[in-house]
Amino acid sequence: HGHLNIPETHRTTAGHRLGNWIAARRRERRKGKLNPERVAALDALGMVWQVHDERFARYLAAARDYHAEHGHLNVPHDHRTPAGHQLGTWIAKRRSEHRRGALSPERVAALDKLGMIWETCDDGFARSLAAARAFHTEHGHLAPIRRSASAEHRKLAEWLGIQRKKQRRGDLPPERAAALRDIDPLWEQPYLSRGLAAARAF
After folding, report:
1. In degrees, to the nearest 5, what angle opens at C-alpha 193 toward C-alphas 189 and 195?
2. Element housing 134 (H / E)
3. DSSP single-letter state for residue 192
4. Would you say 5 and 54 are in contact if contact means Cβ atoms under 8 Å apart?
5. What would the pLDDT profile of 94-141 be if each residue is shown by its tens digit?
6. d(Cα 54, Cα 14) in Å, to the nearest integer?
7. What percent of the chain has pLDDT over 90?
8. Among residues 181, 161, 163, 180, which one has the least CA distance to residue 172?
9. Do residues 156 and 135 lie in contact, with contact meaning Cβ atoms separated by under 8 Å?
10. Cβ within 8 Å of residue 145, ≥6 positions away
11. Residue 18 has what pLDDT?
12. DSSP 3-state percent helix, strand, coil across the chain (nearest 5)
């Protein structure tokens, strides 16, 4: 199976109640009653001491795959991964924990690294940011023109113009400015961004 996240009801083909045995070792370790040699022996097999940590890691990997495909973590509530993970529900629960202050800093940081959307009102920004990232990947700059033949590019140009105005007024949240800067360090200077891309192409 490649892991030791064994269901408690699991029995081996020889009839050993391996699931119960693993659960008992977890309890012993929590109480400080499992000797270091046995801890080390199980660690060498990749023992999962905290089941919740293993589950978080699995869903975090699913979230990473979703972000790689869609460019954001605005996951629909009913979304399931091909492996059957209820990723939309899981993301919603992490938001709820974050609002209550019940999500550990390590987990917050891990999700932040993927571009987690903590408040659903940020969804529109996340979608536009994904469009900006796709545009930059294709064109090498973040300066679409408003008179473009593409309605999508005109819409993106207008949105970027609004973000630049907010930045000049000091109204753009730092994390949003940082997200745009990660795509293009020159996002605030469209002419320079476009000119540099043209020079690079030349």
Report:
1. 120
2. helix 123-139
3. H
4. yes
5. 988 888 888 888 788 888 888 887 876 566 787 888 889 899 999 999
6. 27
7. 31
8. 163
9. yes
10. 153, 157
11. 92
12. 60, 0, 40
Q: In angstroms, rounded to a whole number, what is the distance separating the alpha carbons of residues 114 and 182? A: 13
Amino acid at 69: E
Its pTM stands at 0.45
Helices (H), the chain: 18-30, 36-44, 51-70, 87-100, 105-112, 123-139, 151-169, 174-183, 190-201
Distance CA 44, CA 47 (A): 7
Structure token pair of residue 4: 């030791």
| Token output for 25 | 């070792």
Are 70 and 120 contacting, i.e. CB atoms less than 8 angstroms apart? no
What is the total residue count of the chain?
A: 202
Q: How far apart are CA 110 and CA 60, in angstroms?
A: 8
Distances (CA, A) of 106 to 30, 53, 56, 65, 111: 21, 11, 11, 20, 9
Structure tokens at 182: 């990660």
